[in-house]
């Protein structure tokens, strides 16, 4: 492609050596620069791409996109025959350039994005599974995994960087995908990773305490989520959970067609849980009774969001309801493992106070006379203010608690546990153990549990590692549970 096909004149503040060179690749990593590359200098939280412009040029870059003109290069184009474009936001331009480089792949299928604190992974995965079961070729972009049709790709971020995202969507185009369902994280929105993506629709699930280590305050977190809806075109739809007080905030000044869903009040799409057991729940969606293999009010919201989205995308109501009742749970989300002494172990990704509360409340409601043991921890180098709140939530519903390590990263796991401990009242400490080694914590929980008990192991869900001092050591909660059950049987 030519440079003027990737960056338009009115998007530039300054252009030097405007020769419209051929561009063979786009990158924001100077180490990946090859002959005729466009290098986009991005200022990140750890390093600044502007410091590597000279290296990028030495590696063969024929054009540079940046926010700050490099000293000594802009005025000497005879020695450095490189086109340098200064722009107001490299982050936004990287999104736009990435989309253009791959032929605007999001415009060739219906892309639906979901943002919110909890429920994103479950909702997009169920949408992918539902539409696939209806015979459509679909794409999925999620925290757990990415799919192009039936081909699986590993996931490294909830929402990939713009180049990876558009390359993935380009592959979806090649495979004939008609729909793409994707998680859109607050980090991605704040960093303009989805700039240039054309959304057919956007969903808002809820917003609770999380990621304040990055966003610093709750208002900034809300505003980051809101960006998804602020940028929707009038041809798209916005679907929001009206039972969350920030649902209306999300669609203020939104140009899209706005719809609401609710389990508690009047909305465009309504749902009510009629009966709930450990095997599933009977729901009334609109005027129709539907049995689903899920439990808990939070999953009723997820399923209602899936149903509502499917209808807004033109799905046949009866076909959608039939497919909905056949859906299976998502990996690491209320996954059950039956073991010795009739003990049921439950693995769930819940790692925020609200998510943990939802899961514990659900388990308590469907098994009122059953002992509930909870194993949880908090991640290192993340929002510290939620640590004591996690303790308070666990104490509210659990009969026994074990606090342990969960991805300590570069923090001391014992110090994290001490901060969690501050959330317990003295009387609650009687039913609480503190075991730093997660393997030993899981073993202790299962062996101390009464016959017929439920043991929730929360925080990691689908993850198969522990992140310790920059090294991801293999660790799978489900493997550990099965190992203990095998010893007990």
Overview of the structural elements:
The chain is α/β, with parallel strands linked by helices and 489 residues long. It folds into three domains: 3-99, Udp-n-acetylmuramoylalanyl-d-glutamate--2,6- Diaminopimelate Ligase, Chain: A, domain 1, CATH 3.40.1390; 104-326, 3-Layer(aba) Sandwich (UDP-N-acetylmuramoyl-L-alanine:D-glutamate ligase), CATH 3.40.1190.10; 335-488, Alpha-Beta Complex (Protein-Tyrosine Phosphatase, Chain A), CATH 3.90.190.20. It contains 17 helices and 24 strands. Strands 9-8-7-10-6-11-12-13-14-15-16 form an eleven-stranded mixed sheet, with helices on both faces. A hairpin with a 2-residue loop joins strand 15 and strand 16 (288-292). The longest helix is centred in the middle third of the chain and has 16 residues, at 297-312. It is globular, with a radius of gyration of 24 Å. The N and C termini lie far apart (64 Å). The model is unreliable at 74-78 (pLDDT under 50).
Topology:
Layout: H1 3-6, E1 14-16, E2 25-27, E3 37-40, H2 53-58, E4 63-66, E5 83-86, H3 90-101, E6 110-115, H4 120-133, E7 138-141, E8 145-148, E9 151-154, H5 162-174, E10 179-183, H6 186-190, E11 201-204, H7 212-215, H8 218-230, E12 237-241, H9 247-250, E13 257-262, E14 269-277, E15 280-285, E16 288-292, H10 297-312, H11 317-326, E17 335-338, E18 344-348, H12 353-366, E19 372-376, H13 387-397, E20 400-403, H14 413-421, H15 426-429, E21 432-434, H16 438-448, E22 454-458, E23 465-468, E24 471-474, H17 477-488
Parallel strand pairs: 2-3, 3-4, 4-5, 6-10, 6-11, 7-10, 11-12, 12-13, 13-14, 18-22, 19-20, 19-22, 20-21
Antiparallel strand pairs: 1-5, 7-8, 8-9, 14-15, 15-16, 17-18, 23-24
Helix pairs in contact: 3-5, 4-10, 10-11, 12-13, 13-14, 16-17
